[in-house]
Amino acid sequence: MAKIAVVAANGKAAKKIITEAVNRGFEVTAFGRRAENDTDAKNYIQKDIFDLTREDLKGYDAVVDAFGAWTAETLPLHSKTTQHLADILSGTDVRLLVVGGAGSLYVNPEHTIQVADGENFPEAFKPLAQAMAAALSELRKRKDVKWTYISPAADFQAEGERSGKYILAGEEFTLNPAGESVISYADYAIAMVDEIESGKHIQERISVVGA
């Protein structure tokens, strides 16, 4: 049975990941800033990410970083929180899996143009995409951490149904057979927990799209 910690556990994606893991029999500890446990995890610890220590995360098989920030003032926290978690997991066997974004996926074989560079990419989402891309760029420099960054499809649906199916892809923007880039939080959670179980993509960015 895998023992995992989910950080920023009260977010929508985090809660889906926790539910999926609990249903598979994982031992899950949720870490969140709120006093109340709004997740399916039996173990809940109220603690800010920056207050987490190496000792807090000792003994887990994996840590899921589900942090999200949306305002101009907080966007840099994407990099800062991920780096803090990487620092306290440095040199250990505890894996770090990050809930990523789609804007940094590549749209050309040379990997020089990203989704967020496109003319049709909404201006309102560019700062968020840039912040998440910066966090990934910093993570790529870490050879001392067993990290995996998982990008969802472009249309990441919080209330989407759990189909139980998804397509696993790599660094490039991928469409499903219907020509869509869409996935529900619930199906993304399946992919996340599958990766925790398999451990096939250490120090890699992968992506998932609904089948």
Automatic annotation (TrEMBL):
Q: Which Pfam families match?
A: NAD_binding_10
Which residue ranges does the record assign to the NAD(P)-binding domain? 9-195
* Name by which UniProt lists this protein: NAD(P)-binding domain-containing protein
Native source organism of the sequence: Oribacterium asaccharolyticum ACB7
Note the superkingdom of the native organism: Bacteria
Q: What Gene Ontology terms describe what this protein does at the molecular function level?
A: oxidoreductase activity, acting on the CH-NH group of donors, NAD or NADP as acceptor
Q: Which InterPro entries match?
A: NAD(P)-bd_dom, NAD(P)-bd_dom_sf, Polyketide_Oxido-like
Name the residues that span the membrane. none
